[in-house]
Each structure stands twice: as structure tokens, then as C-alpha cells.
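Researcher: I need the complex structure. Ligand is zinc ion. Inputs:
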Amino acid sequence: MRPRRLACALLAALVAMAPPVSAQLPTLGGGGDLSVSAERKLGMQVAKELYRDPDYIEDPVLDEYVLGIWKRLLAAARTRGDLGSDIDERFAWDVLLGKDRTINAFALPGGWLGLNLGLISATTSADELAAVLGHELTHVTQRHISRMMAQEKKNMPILLGAMILGALAAGRNADAAQAAMVGGQALFMQNQLNYTRDMEREADRIGLQVATQAGFEPQGMASMFEKLQAATRLSDNGSYPYLRSHPMTTERIAEVHQRMQLAAPGAARTPDMLHLMMAGRAKVLSEPGVDMLRSFTTADATRADPASRAREAGALYAAALAQSKLRDARAAQALLPRLAQLAAGNEETARQARLLAAEIALAAGDAQPALALADPARPELVLSSQARMRSGQAGAAAERLQTFVSLNPRDAYMWQLLAQAHAAQGQTLRAVRAEAEVQAARLDWQAALDRLRAAQELLRRGTSARDHIEASIIDARAREMQSLLREQALER
Ligand SMILES: [Zn+2]
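Model: Output:
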């Protein structure tokens, strides 16, 4: 994800149009901090923008993996009493993945976390990733964002206005917004990312405690810091935006080492096969281009340290997926038996090997392995639904997806699949309504309302079969979207 791009939208808009709008902004909380609801609303505007970013990527496997770590950290923060009940209930606590290959993670207002695939693929254990996520989570739970914004109170209404306007401008005219974004970069870096040194220290300290409480090895933070420090020595070639917001001062490093009373840095760590497989997936899904994909298929598989089964599994996973993306199904499938063998020792790695095999087969036109996935978990459901749709079983797919979204009504990706399943059966009305839910889940209420109105029009013209239950849901949802839009308009 490119916070830069968003950032610049903010700044460009800020310069151009903030003064007239600032009068219409949500009011700040009384204590000088941004109120929980103001921060949440601000976050929703920013998240809505990120959902439309071409870099935004939804991947059922990586989503599940990263959310699993994020939720463990959240639970630990809750147990420790770091998570106030107001923000616990009202913030989103969701992770948005970006395809960007650079190393970055950033907390947004309102509990959203932006995470680049580059950071996932640069880490070698869940512990390392948890160290970064724990740090960012702490910026949210300690209300650093709200305090930071309150400290710059005079800029605050402008910043808010700019964020909102940036989102709107991008929605209306992506090219113009894109062009406007180029100028503000450096400004944003100074303006937006200056958590105080005390805040950074607190995020390091509490973040580490949260990660440890959640069962992650504190060693992960040490090795993550070593990595960032090494990148600092190479004088940041632009692929580590994280370092600009989080400079590796010797003080920070010393403090972390002291806190953990570390044994020698680089001490032996248990290789994390599951994480290395997920890192391999992140590497391939970041769309690095054909040459890079080719390099994963050859170099990695042979260069892999044969002494480390975990590393070999990670390399094989990346190689097989890369071969599949290069449309060489045979080469991809040739790698799978060895991967399955390596992954067999652990339930979760074995599952991931099975999922990958089904995904590769499906990409090559063989739906059978995906149809055989029995587990009702989300990644399995995605693959089996896609397989059903390709095998003339769209009805069965729709039925399962319908059950899933009724339990998870804000899952845009699954609503999208459901829309496809309905469309494949010629159920236009239901497909259009499911598309409306995709937009609503991505916080674009106007787009949702537009689709609901299209659905109402279908009913009026009688082109769609009478479907009374669906019709009343559509009317109710349209009223909800209208009221959300009115609320939003009043705030501005
Ligand atoms: Zn930080």
C-alpha cells in the first residue's frame, strides 16, 4: 500500500482547499484528544480511499494469516488492559494489505492497519511480523494518533479536511487526484509521521510486551530491529519507507536489547515454516514482474539451504506459485509433492500446502482438488466456490456463500464472489444487491445506494422475477445507506 500516494492527496488537497472546508469538520474531543468517534470517522474516510487504491489486495490466505497474528495481539492488549472498551468496540481492527514490495506498515486512525506485502516477505518468522504489528497496534491503543493530532491542533482541522477531500477527489477523478499527489510527499513525511520520540519508545516497550503476552518470541523484535538496522547502514534505498517513520536510532536499539536482556544477537531461532511459506506467497503476489517471478522459480528452489526444511518449504511454495503465475502448471505441480512432504509435520503447514495445490490446479483448469476441500474456513470456501462456479454448480456455491455472508456481513470479498455466483445463475436482482453490499463493506455508501436503486428499478420494471424477501431487504438497505450518507453530510 502506498501511504505516500494517499498522503500526498491529503497535502495537495490541504493546500488547495482546506480553509473553506475546515468550518464543516467534526469537532475535536473535549480533552484535546481526537474523540473516539471522530478518530473512527476519520479512519473510515482514509480506509475508504485505500480500498480503492490499485495497490490494495485481498488474498484469502494472507488475509487470514495476518489477521490471525493481529487478533492474537489484540486479545493480548485486551488482557493487559491496554485496550479501552470504547476503542475496542468502536474501532475497525482490520488489516488492509497492499501489493507494494517496499517495507512498510502503518497504523491509521480508527484501528485500521496498512501492511505492505513487502514487509511480510522480508520477515522470516511470525515473531518478527508480530513485533512490527505490536508496535503499530500500540500507536493506536495508546491513542498516539489522536494525541499527535491534538498536539498539532492548529493544523488538525486542515489535516482532517484534507483527508476527506483527498478521498473524495480521488473518487471523482482518479487521474487528477493522482497528479495532485506528486507534490506533497516531503511535506507529509514531516507533517504526518512525527510521532514523538516518547511515543516511539512507548510503542516499542508496550508493543514488545503485547507481542510477548500473545505468545510471540521477543527475539522476533531483536531480529526485526537487526534487519532494519542493516537496511539503515545500506542507507535506505527507498525500499524501506518504514525507516523514515521509524529511524533505527542507536538509542532505540540499545533499549530493546536491554529490555530483552538478549543473548547474542542472531542466536539460533526456530525456523518458522508456516511464516516462510506465507512470506513466499507475499513475494509472488506483490507482482514483481516476469523476470523476478522466473528468479523465484529457479534461484530460490536450488539455493535453498537443504539443511533447513522450513526454508526449503518457503522457497518451494514461492517457486510453485510463481510457476503457476507464469502459466507453467506442469512445472508448478512438479514441485508440490516435495512441498507436501516437508509440510506434512504440522497441521497448518500441511493445510497451506493442500490449499496451494488446489489453487494451482484450479488455475490450470482442474477444479477437482478445490471441490474436495472440505474445511469450511474462508480460504477453502473461496477456492471451492470458484471451483463450483467453473463446474456449473453456481447454485451450490451461492448457497454456501450466502450462509457465510449472513454471519460475516461486512466481508466485501465474499459478497463479490456471491455476486458472481448469482450472476452465473442469471439472478440479476440478487447479484446487483450483492454488489451493493461489496460497496457498503468498503465504506462507499453512495456507490452502494446507486446499486440498490438499480435493483429497485429492476423490480419496478418487473424484469426481475418477484422476490419479496429480497425486495424488502433492498428497500431497508437503501434507507440505511441514505441515512449514513445524510449523517456524513451533516458532519462535513
Ligand atoms: Zn512507531
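Model: Summary of the prediction. The longest helix spans residues 468-491.
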